[in-house]
Structure to design on (102 residues):
């Protein structure tokens, strides 16, 4: 288990790490907080957001409770707010530095 605090992994504009931490559901009741590859822009419509806060969505509770099966470990946390770090070439409505809620 990591002993780093959130301040040590906090917002540091312009300094992106190669990994990030995320919540991943492995099965009913088996939610793990683990190191994952940092996101990259893959499609021109992508944006990378440095998360300030996130929460559980009601739709996350179905697989967590075992009422909706999952085929493989599944990242969770699609409700969020944070700061835009990078956008794909087709993104016109967001710019790095903007605070967004999704
Ligand atoms: Zn949701």
């Amino acid at each position: 288990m990591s002993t780093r605090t959130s301040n040590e992994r906090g917002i540091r504009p312009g300094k992106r790490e190669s990994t990030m931490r995320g919540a991943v559901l492995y099965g009913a009741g088996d939610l793990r907080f683990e190191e994952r590859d940092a996101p990259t822009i893959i499609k021109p419509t992508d944006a990378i957001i440095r998360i300030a806060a996130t929460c559980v969505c009601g739709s996350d509770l179905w697989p967590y409770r075992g009422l909706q099966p999952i085929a493989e470990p599944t990242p969770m946390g699609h409700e969020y707010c944070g700061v835009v770090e990078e956008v794909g070439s087709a993104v016109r409505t967001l710019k790095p530095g903007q605070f967004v809620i999704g």
